[in-house]
Amino acid sequence: MFESLFQSFEDQADPSQGAVRIAALRAELDGAGLDGFLIPRADEHQNEYVPQSEERLAWLSGFTGSAGLAVVLRDRAAIFVDGRYALAVKDQVDLSVFQPVALEETNLEKWLRENLRRGNRLGYDPWLHTPRQVERLAKAAEAVDAELVAIEPNPIDRIWSDRPPPPLGKISLHARKFAGENASRKLARAADALADKDALLVSDPHSVAWAFNIRGRDVSHTPLPLAYALILKDGKPRLYVDARKLDHSLQEKLSSLADIEQPARLERDLEELGREGKRVLFDAATAPVKLTEIVKKAGGVSDVGVDPLALMKAKKNSAELEGARQAQLRDGAAIVRFLHWFSVQAPTGGLTEIDAAEALETFRRETRKLKDVSFPSIAAAGPNAAIPHYRVTVKTNRKIGKGIFLIDSGGQYDDGTTDITRTVAVGKPTAEMRDRFTRVLKGHIAIARAVFPKGASGAQIDALARLPLWRAGLDFDHGTGHGVGSYLSVHEGPQRISKLGSAPLEPGMIISDEPGYYKAGHWGIRIENLVVVEPREIAGAEREMLGFETITLAPIDLALVERKLLDPEEIAWLNAYHARVRKEISPLLDDSDARRWLNNATKRI
């Protein structure tokens, strides 16, 4: 094994300090004349992964999930989580201090209407909430004659004595051979997309990274530079980034594209645009309300809408698509090596979930091209596999016994980002396991084979993945697919396949295909490949049609397939997919035992 892995299995949750820290926070609030405060799990860019200096919710409560929010009032405190963390939150927080609230049952606005009192002043950090979030929260407070109040600096920062410093990860260029388009062209396209707006404030670091062809090291697992940019309809763009992240050569190159400014300059520049009466476009999903208010108060117009860079970034060009295919090939070979290793080691009964996660990362590292894992691996045995977003820690680490093992993982490479889930049987699976697995497989194949008219959204095809489960009175509670970036975020919008996926699917988008089934307390199943939206020629078609190209290549466990549940077209798809896996991955394996295993794992059924 390598000495240092990209992922840690230590449990960072510390509920023991909850009572002391919440008492200190209440003292701060009292001094500021506030009756409560909102603590989101967020940084000022609304990133999925945030630097340690922004983990305020974890520091206060002990909860380490990737999404959540706490409300601290004078006499009570609640922490809101979605279904992914319903079990974990109860283990991570002091339940005598925080009341866990399931968002599926009670949303934050309803809770505020029920718990705020007339005249209460509820504080929030305007850097950590978007304008639309603040608008909803303000209405909830006003409904009971309470008030939502912006407060700076964040009161938690005043009591967090050992708060880590902000990150200073070095920024590097993302080569043109991987990006496929010069940054100058991307920035020009962004300016052209402004229409009646005078400027675009780019608050999403993913968009900053894509537009300037740069990558950074400020957060875990996603190569992000934490930075802002201002793209003007007329004038040179501006990049707001701590100069300590740039070496001299890179600063010179970026200066040819944009004026390089320190982040502290951003507020002044937005205020100046406001005084000039300019209309500035802000991204509704990531822009802090603090910045939109600066423009408005100075006399300008803050137009909160959709960042046009998001769609440009989502539609991969030919170089990005070729890079993605190469990354999937390389990653697929590592997955096959892992699955072969697992098939030998798991039956001994000596493996743990952490052993498996470490081994898979090691196989990826042996490619010598791995930059990071794209997220902490979900290595889950038995009942842990029934938790869709389970994360193994030293505390939860489970021996892998007979039954089902699920591993959801991915890698970051210069040429692409990967995400794959495989569910495998250890020992002989039960009839129920085979039935459920095959229904999930049928849904997976239905998405992979789907054809749909141009303009269709992910919401319109989501049901295809669920129908085989619905016919048995079953379902799963997560989306069927999410967008994936190009050596960027493993979770990228606006494209997704889910009940809420309203963005039209367009050629070049990369999306996951990952239906599942979870038997709570027993086991879980998920099958995930990445697919690319592509044009689909159909003889006699009266409309422009689209479909998917599957680019993930690794065997699907035939021991879990109940052949009689598959129709002839599904059997043909599975056989063709496995033939392709065998043809493309075998030459990348230097171990004859692994090649023999792959031949058997991809045999025709």
Automatic annotation (TrEMBL):
A Pfam family of this chain:
Peptidase_M24_C
The domain of life for this entry's organism is: Bacteria
Q: What class of enzyme is it?
A: hydrolase
InterPro entries, sorted? Creatin/AminoP/Spt16_N (IPR029149), Creatinase/aminopeptidase-like (IPR036005), Creatinase_N (IPR000587), Pept_M24 (IPR000994), Pept_M24B (IPR033740), Peptidase_M24_C (IPR032416), X-Pro_aminopeptidase_P (IPR050422)
Check the record and name the SUPFAM superfamilies matching this protein.
Creatinase/aminopeptidase, Creatinase/prolidase N-terminal domain
Q: Which residues form the Creatinase N-terminal domain?
A: 21-152
What family is it from?
Belongs to the peptidase M24B family.
- Name of this chain's protein: Aminopeptidase P family protein
- Source organism of the structure: Methylocapsa polymorpha
At the highest ranks, the source species' classification is: Bacteria, Pseudomonadati, Pseudomonadota, Alphaproteobacteria, Hyphomicrobiales
